[in-house]
Amino acid sequence: MPEKAPDPRTERPPGARPRLADGRRSPGGRTQDPPDPYDRPDASRPAAVEAAEAVDADVPAAVGRVLDALLAERVEHAAALDPVFGRDLAERVARCTVEGGKRMRSQFVWWALRACGGGAGEAEAALSVGAALELIQTCALVHDDVMDGSRLRRGRLALHAVVTAQYADAVPADRARRFGEAAAILAGDLALAWADDTVAAVEAPRDTVRAVRDLWSTMRTEMVAGQYLDIQGQATSSVSLARAVRAACLKSALYSVERPLALGAALAGADAARSAALCSAGRCVGIAFQLRDDLADAFGDPLRTGKPAGGDIRAGKPTYLVAVAQARAESTGDRRGGAVLRRSLGRADLSESGLAEVRDVLVSTGARDLVEAKIDRLVAQGMRHLDSVVLEPQGRKRLRRLLHASAGTAPAPNPASGACGAEDGGLPLSLLLSAGADGVLR
Length: 442
Known about the structure:
Layout: E1 24-25, E2 31-32, H1 47-57, H2 59-81, H3 83-98, H4 104-115, H5 120-148, E3 152-153, E4 156-157, H6 159-166, H7 173-200, H8 206-236, H9 241-268, H10 272-299, H11 302-305, H12 311-315, H13 320-331, H14 335-344, H15 352-364, H16 367-386, H17 393-407, E5 423-424, E6 427-428, H18 429-432
Antiparallel strand pairs: 1-2, 3-4, 5-6
């Protein structure tokens, strides 16, 4: 890819009409996307356009190539510092980052960039930010597995379990376990350091760099705040609808969807209206993503999720699903359902039959159906935000597909229109959209 490729937003072949700078309203009121000036048989395509389209064809692979080069250099440097450190930690961090996962966050960065008119001129920066997001995801997963005591990740042993097994014959069992957890904490720290270094090295106009670094800094703090609320809720057995949503928003929705979209928009130099619309769409769908994850933990197939079912229930996590079930049991006088939840949540030794009993309560109280309905409404609201501004047609199309995929919903040709204040399980949808750390109602 050329280091200084022409910008596809400004480079035009002779005779081609420039893209419209402002949107038009169709008779139905929907914002109309500008036409593609290259969508003509006689229009030649500049090299910059073709370079960006090469990434369009397979964004995960493009990010993978950046990661391969970046991590090879990092692992080599770590091994030079100390071969044991390089082998035990650096190589494993690299392997965790490049193996498995759909690279959804880096795809959100790229397609937000493209939807806001960015292209080859910003490609290197966007792919680097995408690679950094994959590294910070490694940090989050490795630390999560230690905090949750989970031995499996994506169907394989978690990093702390791998290190424990490696040294099982050399040290006593309890010491090996504690050593494995300590090593995993350091591995997560290493992934975070590499992520920060990658963002710090991004080259772009000064204002763009400042915006990206501000977003990155905010996102890191939000992740820690959300994770703390999660474990604090476990420790205190505090389950409430508002707290569950705030934790879900901070821990997952913002860094999984909204902030990646905001980073892509910032790299493209998007205006305030586009950035706000993408952030609003990302927050709605990001919360839906976490609610879907809660359902998958309780009802999912371990062969598909890559981890044992019921982990959140056994850990006593204050999920929105459980909070709705408890609220419904209390409001309907379902004493049996309430008793099952009270005695089962947080029991690490909960049997499969006990887990099945909890699932029955989640269904009989209507909590499962209510959460499914909440997901659908959040996604529909997210799509309305996405459709409220002018975006490049291909970028909009790919973002719609990604947003639906992250929430586990099927795209609908005519999403239902619903009010932001619709009630479900006692919690207004407007609260869901304002649960972020910045206090801004999206």
